[in-house]
Amino acid sequence: xxxxxxxxxxxxxxxxxxxxxxxxxxxxxxxxxxxxxxxxxxxxxxxxxxxxxxxxxxxxxxxxxxxxxxxxxxxxxxxxxxxxxxxxxxxxxxxxxxxxxxxxxxxxxxxxxxxxxxxxxxxxxxxxxxxxxxxxxxxxxxxxxxxxxxxxxxxxxxxxxxxxxxx
Amino acid sequence: xxxxxxxxxxxxxxxxxxxxxxxxxxxxxxxxxxxxxxxxxxxxxxxxxxxxxxxxxxxxxxxxxxxxxxxxxxxxxxxxxxxxxxxxxxxxxxxxxxxxxxxxxxxxxxxxxxxxxxxxxxxxxxxxxxxxxxxxxxxxxxxxxxxxxxxxxxxxxxxxxxxxxxxxxxxxxxxxxxxxxxxxxxxxxxxxxxxxxxxxxxxxxxxxxxxxxxxxxxxxxxxxxxxxxxxxxxxxxxxxxxxxxxxxxxxxxxxxxxxxxxxxxxxxxxxxxxxxxxxxxxxxxxxxxxxxxxxxxxxxxxxxxxxxx
Lengths: 167, 309
Known about the structure:
heterodimer; A: mainly alpha; Fumarate Reductase Iron-sulfur Protein, Chain B, domain 2; 10 helices; B: Glutathione S-transferase Yfyf (Class Pi), Chain A, domain 2; Rossmann fold
């Protein structure tokens, strides 16, 4: 499947449909899914089936339960890239501002620091005690620029709007 | 061989003792580590799910930075490896995609050319140094029965990453055997540690980890050996949460491979590495494996094993 980088929703949905087409509902993906095993409300088979049956990409919120372990793709006898399909669905739901708060938080940290974690005071001290070198400075302005030109800032804004005015 | 070293946010900011073990062993095998101003890889699940375009462009930027220095990238985290290797695959197999991403990178004066390779430390140690080369440099054997967990993002998608067999990985097992350890097969060996959705749904995430621990505990290992810092945190800190949530009593020491390699090589400074661990009995497990401390290694999980809830 092509990466989701163009801003044409219709094209993306048709990409997803085409990628899901070979599925014949054998269920190996669900049987291999660690999340389905403990939380059957998330079923990769049904996520794909919905697309094939309805021709639309249903954004239910459960698509975010995918842990991206890629076991479903590994075992699919038809070579359907389920994780890629789920990534595409999540990209569509993120465009509408439907994103779990923890992921928004992560994106905000990346936006302002260029990384997903800050070294705590304790870690900085530990690094020094262990004789580890100082880490090269990350240019956060570069990251901000990339987030801006690739539409991530827009998505974060849309999330905040959706959060303020629930439908 | 000199590499652009990509420690990743998790090792650098949360597990500095793992970075220390990498920096101890690499020079011993003439693996040079160069520090470059890398950003977050970015994280393969959440960031890619939020915006695949942003994820791809940030990964392309990191690879471009290494290319500017004519270096290949050496990753130590399965997540960083997955993001950079998958991004590279997408950029190298589609001219359209590459052109699109390079237009974004032009805004910060960078360009992805595709020259740099992306490798994980497991590949360098297993494929380049080789298990024989590892074994020859050990001063002592570590008598320990372990379960290994390479990490999803080091194994899959198999057809692209081609690191090891995704359903029956063997390289980390060969590497632990080179240190004298016994690698025990177990149920759900290639199953996820649950970390990928820890922020999205904590309950589901720890239920996945509970399943993983159930499989490992059946074979009563002395320890688990991983090659990914996220799996390390998931196993080490996560087992306490699993115990709290599900009434189990797991107490399994967890090691990142190069920590044990440094111990087996008899390198200076391994005490300071092991003291960073959180599972009670970790240092004693290593001491016993080295033949110190009298009684032969007792399986902590066998002793304190899972209790039915």
